[in-house]
């Protein structure tokens, strides 16, 4: 294998224009900047409704420099499937040369992927379309005002999982989208995090080099939805990895590999205390979340066949 | 005075937007209450602010700079104040604290 990429390897050229209306410090904006750097210039992007879509395409302007299409909320993967099928048909008819390799990228938020778009995504993965799907996961329906989704973690406040005498925020655990994708026997899935950009860049390049359906799950801090000061976006993204709340890994043809090992984990409250959405949590609720993280880490280490994410160090 | 909107007859089919990256027409600097100011003598050219800025408004320029201590750099990082929203991510992440967030006085 070639040497791992560093921050110096990221292309200077910007393919995602400023002037978009994403919030100050938005994690998804950092993701979009680097995703558009990693994919070839003629890649066709299909996008679900959500923050990224509404803030980047206020008619008659667009922040995108790639061919980009939005149809609706639930169907980004179906649109991508159609685009990929159309490219094949155009090649068959000799309209574009057989040798021309145009990539298709599809993106959606967690709501548009875990919940409402899951059928379109499952169909795309099942039919084997040559598409890379990236879900930017800010753990709620942010664009419409912070409603919980299947990706909202246990304990998080949202406007539909309020905090009061009876309700204590979200009471269900986050849905495991990676396992859902893997159940379709896809050749490549990975997780990425905006604090680890060379890793993100490398995974996107690798995914695009593999034929067939691929899924990348991206961690996406959200300033108003997670309730923190905008300067903390990257600090929170890093802390998610250092506590084991988020693990950077990839599964390539069934082979599992952690790309950001964490020899000594930090206690989960180091992550939780940075965000207002977890402010109400009691010590007992925090220890319950710690238990969930420990379980996840154990599972990861089992898949890796060794300890890649270490124990909590207090 | 704002000019009247084009009629549907004048729009491309499907109202396709034909100008890539055209949000540059909309400057977002008015969102800012704090202005990041880079100290070129302190900056070690690590590239982190450039990488992490959500707006892509830290410019990486092939512009040589000699620090007061006599160190020569071939690149300079400068903020594009037309679009910087003042989030402070760059200043927070700078490993040598070379970026100061200064209140905007208008
Ligand atoms: C069928 C349909 N239902 C509801 C909506 C309203 N809607 C638009 S964006 C959105 C939330 C998107 O959430 P998510 O996919 O997580 O993206 P985010 O805004 O968080 O980035 C909703 C509910 C819609 N556009 N279409
Ligand atoms: S609401 Fe959250 S995800 Fe949406 S633009 Fe703002 S910070 Fe980004
Ligand atoms: S304050 Fe935020 S928007 Fe402005 S240059 Fe720094 S990171 Fe970019
Ligand atoms: S993060 Fe700080 S040291 Fe690094 S390039 Fe930016 S200003 Fe210079
Ligand atoms: Mg969301």
From TrEMBL, chain A:
Organism lineage string: Archaea, Thermoproteota, Thermoprotei, Desulfurococcales, Desulfurococcaceae
InterPro entries: PorB-like, THDP-binding, TPP_enzyme_TPP-bd
CDD domains the record matches: TPP_PFOR_porB_like
Reaction(s) the record says it catalyses: a 2-oxocarboxylate + 2 oxidized [2Fe-2S]-[ferredoxin] + CoA = an acyl-CoA + 2 reduced [2Fe-2S]-[ferredoxin] + CO2 + H(+)
UniProt signal peptide: none
One Pfam family in the UniProt entry: TPP_enzyme_C
EC number, as in UniProt: 1.2.7.11
PANTHER family to which the protein is assigned, alphabetical: PYRUVATE SYNTHASE SUBUNIT PORB
A molecular function (GO) term: pyruvate synthase activity
Record SUPFAM superfamilies: Thiamin diphosphate-binding fold (THDP-binding)
Protein name as annotated: 2-oxoacid oxidoreductase (ferredoxin)
